[in-house]
What we know:
alpha/beta; 2 domains; Rossmann fold; seven-stranded parallel β-sheet
Amino acid sequence: MINLIFTLYNLAWFAAMPFLRRSPRVSIGWSQRTLREVPDGPFDIWIQAASGGESLLTNMVLERLAATLPQQKKLRVLATSGTKQGIDSLKKGRDLLPLQESLKITIAYFPFDAPYLMKKAFVRFAPKLAIIVETELWPGFLVTARRNHVPVLLINGRMSEKSCRSYRHFHGFFKKYGPERIWAISSQDGERFAGVFGAERVELMNNIKFDRIKSTSEVSSASPIAGLFPETARFVLLGSVRREEEEVILKTIIATLARRRDIVIGIFPKHIERADPWLTLLHAAGLQAVKRSEIVDRRPPGTIIVWDVFGELAGAYALAAATFVGGSLVNFGGQNFLEPLAFGLKPIIGAYWQDFAWVGRDIVTSGLVQEIADGTELTAALLAAIDSDMKRGEVIQKVRRFFQPRKGGTDQISRQIMDRLHSLESQ
C-alpha cells in the first residue's frame, strides 16, 4: 500500500514542479532543492530547520556541540532549511562559530519531498542521524530515512491542537514511520505527540528558546538605530505586524500621535514586502513617514519609520520606551514577545498568542507581559508605557528569576544527540 501511495505522491510532485519553479519564494535555491547542486556526504548529522525561527535554534545546538566536542572527535553536519531566511540565519550562525577542524557545517536548501528526490538525497548525504527541529513531518523524508535505516530525532517539539487533529488521521503511518524519539517542550505538546506517535517515543525537554533569553540593559551608542532620531525623543516600536492587523495599528498610531507628538514610531512589518503598502497607508492618513532604508539623517519627533531592512529588530527593542508585538491582535498565534524582555522592555501583546502558550500564562500574571484585547486598549497601554518610569535593570532581574528554572534545553538535547550518535558508531 505504501508503495502505491508513494507512486501517487511522486506523480503529484512531478505535476507541481512547473508551478513551483515559477514561485518567487520557492525558486530560490532551486538547484539545491532539486539536488542538481548539492554537497556530497557522508554526514554524521542531517539537521532540518523549517525556517528562520528553527534555524536560530539549530545554531544554538550546533554552537553547543562545537563547544563540547572532544578534541579528537570530528563531526560533519548538514544543516538544511526550506526558506531563504532560514538559510541566511544558518550561515550567520556558522560564521559566528570559531574556526575549528572538529566541526564542519555544510548548509543547503532542504530538497523537495518528492520520494525520487529524497531517495537521491539520502544516497548523496548518507547521514548517520537525522534531526528535525520543532515539527517538520515530510512523509518522503520520514519513509526514506526508515528505508535507509537512518534514525530520526525530533527536538524542541511543539504541536498545536489543530495540527494534532490533522496528524491523527494518519496515526498508522506516523506510528510506523515517525521519528524514533521526540522531545516535546511541554506536557501539553507531549500529550499531542503521544496521541499521534505513541507515548513510548515521547519525552519532555526545556524549550531551547528559553536559552536565548540573555538579558542585557546595555545599549551601544554605536548602534545605527540610535542615530535615526533625537536622543530626547521617546521611541515606540510596533513589531512583527501582520497585514490583517494594519487597520487597527493605523488607528492606534493616529490616536497615539494625537496625544504625544514628541515620539518616534517604528513599524516592523512581519513580512518586509508590506513596507511600501504601509508607507502608502500612512501618507494617505496625512502622517509623516519614511522607510528605514531611505533615512540619511535624524528624523524629527512625530515621524513614523517603516522598517524595510532585516536584522535591526533586536537593536530597536534595546532603544524602545514601549513596544507592541504583533500577530496577536488577530488569530495568527502571536510572534516572539520574549526578545524585548531580554532588554528589560515589557512587551504588550494581543489575546492571540497560542503559538507561545509553552511560555505559560504566568508570564502575564507576573507582570512581565501585558495582554490587551483591542486597539483602544493598545493605545492606552502604549501611552502608559511611554510615561512610565521603567527601570530596565529591575525588569531584567525579574526576567532572570522567571526564566532561570526554564533553561537548559540546549545542553540537554545536545547530550542526547551525541549519545545517540555514539551508540550508532558503536554498532
